[in-house]
Amino acid sequence: MFDANPQSNSNNSIPAVTSGDGIKALLDFKFNKFITPSLIRWLYVVLFVLTLIVLAVGELGLLIAFLGSLFDKNKPTGLFFLGIIFSPVAALIYLISVRIWLEWLMAFFNLERLTRQIEENTRKG
After folding, report:
1. CB 40 within 8 A of CB 105
2. 11 vs 37, which has greater pLDDT?
3. Whole-number Å distance between alpha carbons of 98 and 92
4. Is the pTM of the predicted complex or chain greater than 0.85?
5. Which runs of consecutive H residues, i.e. helices, occur in 14-77?
6. Could you tell me if 37 and 106 are in contact, meaning their C-beta atoms sit under 8 angstroms apart?
7. In angstroms, rounded to a whole number, what is the distance separating the alpha carbons of residues 63 and 69?
8. CB count, 10 Å around CB of 42?
9. Virtual torsion, Cα 14, 16, 21, 22, nearest 10 deg
10. Residue 6: which pLDDT band, with cuts at 50, 70 and 90?
11. Where are the domains of the chain?
């Protein structure tokens, strides 16, 4: 499988930014360092947590609407059960698609690293 760890790149590839190099990388106008691989992990964590918060708030809203509909005979209660079932499924599909997109983006950085290794090996041989 692919090594998605940006810290394990060769000496000739463009290095990922470490924790202390963030400002230097932002001011690097030659793009000698990639800042995106270090941000991808944080982006995924933030999106994961936000998705869980939105899901919890949505489920709580559905529960409140359901409890309110128990006292009013004109409001349907079946939508509550659909929401309880489909909102976690939708959140799971969203998280899977975000993960796939971020892994796809990391594959480009891995491709760059491997291309530099091929270039280095071709110059040596």
Report:
1. yes
2. 37
3. 10
4. no
5. 22-26, 36-70
6. yes
7. 10
8. 9
9. 110
10. very low
11. 6-124
